[in-house]
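Help: why these numbers?

___
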Amino acid sequence: MGIFSSQNPTHEQNKYFDRINTQSHQTYDPYIQQGQQAGQQLGQQYGQMAQDPGAFYEQLMQGYQPSKQYQMQNDAQQRSAGNSAAAGGMRGTQQDIGNAAQISDRLMGDDMKQWYGNISGLMTAGQAGQQGMANRGYDAATGLGGDLNNIFGMQAGQAMQDARGHQDTRGRVFGGLMGAGAGAIQGGMTAGPWGAVAGGLYGGAKGSGFMK
């Protein structure tokens, strides 16, 4: 290993940062993914409602089927109207047929409104749930971003501190070498070989900053 080589002092610390990073992703990623899926589904629904609300309504109403309550009410009212028409000698006439159609249309209209109201309520509840999932996904993404920013900030700060430390170390080494050389020359000129040795030691200590 050369005189200026050094092992990265942040290596062990980065292991813990990596563990925090992994744990943060394991905690937040499921909520982020759920939130993204919910947001995409909501976006598609809202887009259909805004672009062509009539088509959206028609598509929704394709699932309608007359309820059992409608069937019971229609049968009862049709029998009553038929009995009245028969008693008045109107059974089978155009008026009797028109009355029967009006009864069915009115009851079915009420039944469809009830069905649509129920479906709309369920759809609204589902959209609220999806919106909640999307919000949780956003909060999770915000939390993950905060954790990662903290990790990166600490790593950057440690790297800067290490770089400054390495610069200081190199400066002391260079200073020691230059001081030792100068001290050795001065000592050799004044006291011979042993003076050069002593001057080199003293100059190296001064140059490296170990002596004031």
In short: The two ends are 30 Å apart (CA to CA).
